[in-house]
Amino acid sequence: MQYTPSRNTIGHRRASISLLLALASSFALASPPAVTVPVTEALSGPNSGSLGFTSLSSSGRYLAYVSSVRSARGNIYILDRTTGTNIQADLTVAGQPSAGAATASPVLSADGRYVAFRSLAADMGVPNGKTGFFIHDSISNITKPIFIGYASNTAFTQLTISADGRYVAYRALLAAGSTESNIYVYDRVAGTSSPVTTTHTLGTQFIQISDDGRYVAYIGQVRGVGKTEVVVHDRTSGIDDAFEGMAQGLAMSADGNVLAFVSAQNSLPGDITGTRDVFVRDRKAGTTERASSPITVNSHSGGPGGVTISADGRFVSFLGYVAPLNVISLYRYDRATRTTKRAVPAAGFHEYTFNYPSTSRDGRYVSSDGMLLPFGTAARIQLTDFGTATGVSVAPASVTVVEGGNSATYQAVLLQQPTDNVAVNVAPDAQLSVARSQLTFTPSNWNTPQTVSVQAPANDIVQGTRTRTMTHSLASSDPEYTLLPVASVTVTITESGPPTIVVPTVWSPEPIPLRGTAAPGATVLITVSTDGAPAFISVSAVADAQGNWASSLFIPSPGPYQLEAVANGLHSIVYNMNLADEAPQ
Predict the structure, then answer these.
(1) Banded pLDDT at 279 (limits 50, 70, 90)
(2) How many Å is the maximal CA-CA distance in the chain?
């Protein structure tokens, strides 16, 4: 569909964009197997030149990019994919649109509100020969300088921003023409910058920061040694976690645990000699795996590393080709299912001109640069939708049961249609029991939630309140569900106790008000009998979250009676009362 160009002067200078949605035709690829073809969008910007250096917001709704009339001039724009409009983000401190000059490296906060970027423009207050890093608030329409000084002026100068937009990490040279540099973290709230690196310098421009701003990952050389390492610096403890990788690209999960990087280091596990491969490092597990098998990253492609990772570390997207075709494409590797998907370019795009990938937090959307046909005509942005990820949703994540009492329930449902039946095996803790130990989802009922009912059988051991776990596993011939992990459910067990009854000594008028205690949430049945005869009156109540219940009772004639409460199969003591001709006043 076509959006007619227009301007809106409220808040921002706005211009509409042309948005072309093209369905890629199916493509048979001999290697690797099980590669699917997602839908790709081709995005055009406000200028007729090149578009690139993309960054996606958390949901993929907002996209920051550079639109250049020519290579020496560019501006930062933020596209709203829902409305089809974009705004210029490289505004001067005075709030005016910058004329632009070698502007690059935009990075978006999770909500798309903040964008940090680099500019050499004089109207941004950057003197000739220096570099300026800035952060723009698209709601308040305010741009603040982060750093103006000496830094690498290459297109690969990379910034990184925390999810909430508070922290921005950047690399600056120690002096003009210096071969050494340092990494700093700018705190938007405090308005100050603090140094990060001490033992490592120089290296590449690749920097990443965790959601909370605690961990900063980068690639650097050990001072005085020259050995290149991947480093994760803990800003709280001051400790570096470093490992040798000869990395040429870097991405990090939201919690700072999982790292994806491009490397030609032959000593890494599974490395293919003579190629640049994509590896994933799990810091907690202490493992390193190759994600690009059997795909290798092309040496002349990749922009800032040619690799990106989802917030949870599950999806690694990268640029690569399949030998001997020598055709570069965008790929997404799923670490949970060990499967790879290939993005076929949109119609009219050259197949081996992908650069600068960026991903949404869930890994569904990946943006990258592409070159229009005929080759070299102009660069445009390609946005690939890899679809909803396979998975099992389990909710709620925690439930509470009373020992020997009623059951609690939770539900499970698949997130994507399987190609074959998927069995979800339910494994309760030894102190728990379930009505169904297996749920079966088919290609027909995969999106219909199924219920698991869990109980805590009574025992004679007093253990107090404790938590136990319901675990799950999958069985299916669908490869995307075979290795997939499933979330567990935490079950809190409260110790069961008999209910109690409290009868007032004075009440007026009828009926008799009753109250008592029972397990929180339990249904309490109060019965009345006389002289050992079967109960002839009963009322019920539900105990609140504190275990208190209240009800009322009408007994039609005077005489001796016995009252008893039952909750979760447990009986109270029998309460004897003698109802006189007149109710007590």
Answers:
(1) confident
(2) 105
Distance CA(316)–CA(332), nearest Å, equals: 6
* Amino acid (one-letter) located at 370: G
Sign of the Cα torsion 119, 365, 352, 269 reads positive
Say how far residue 89 (Cα) sits from the centre of its chain.
25
Q: Is the dihedral of CA 237, 238, 242, 246 positive or negative?
A: positive
- pLDDT tens digits, 529-546: 887 677 778 889 998 877
pLDDT, one tens digit per residue, over 29-58 is 233 334 556 666 667 666 556 777 889 999
Strands 523-529 and 328-334 come out as unpaired
Instruction: Show the CA angle centred on residue 494, arms to residues 490 and 498, nearest 5°.
Output: 155
Distance CA 78, CA 113 (A): 9
The CA-to-CA distance between both ends of the chain, in Å, stands at 81
Closest CA to 445 of 471, 418, 466: 418
**Whole-angstrom distance, CA of residue 456 vs CA of residue 319:** 51
Q: Which of 403, 404, 412 is CA-nearest to residue 470? A: 412
Instruction: Give the C-alpha separation, 351 to 357, whole Å.
Output: 15
Q: Which of 40-44, 95-99, 207-211, 292-296 has the highest average model confidence (pLDDT)?
A: 207-211
User: What average pLDDT score do residues 446-461 get?
Assistant: 90
